[in-house]
Amino acid sequence: MRAKLLFVLLLTLSACATYVPRSEGLPGAPAAQAAVEEFLLVAANKDYVQMGWIFGTMEGAIIERDPLPEVERRMYAIANVLTHTSFTIDEQRVVPGRIGEAIRFDVRLIRGVREYLVPFTVVQGPEGRWFVEQVDLEAVTGSIG
Length: 145
Known about the structure:
Elements: H1 2-16, H2 32-44, H3 48-54, E1 56-57, E2 60-61, H4 68-81, E3 86-94, E4 102-111, E5 114-124, E6 130-135, H5 138-141
Antiparallel strand pairs: 1-2, 3-4, 4-5, 5-6
């Protein structure tokens, strides 16, 4: 009887856990610029879960750390600010004070006839994968109005 109860309890607990696998396999991206490109593409598709697999820190993707509903809300907000019709990524630059840890890309977001220069900071995490750590959303929101 105790074994059956334990089995039912384990089944119930496993059903409560939220695990969302990344459809492309590993978290992050294989290269720094690829992290920015993939992030913008999944943001354009409003795929907030996949955004959570690319957004992160040197410790890894935030979707592995934070509750899924919180990640989806954050990625929803970022995706709405980064709405664009096209983009180009400028050359990479080092981040002062974080040489060897972080790389910055200036991304030219085109939205209709408007253009925004949005800085993205990417970092290398576990297994050599790259994550978007920071997006300067004020570069877009500060220009509105």
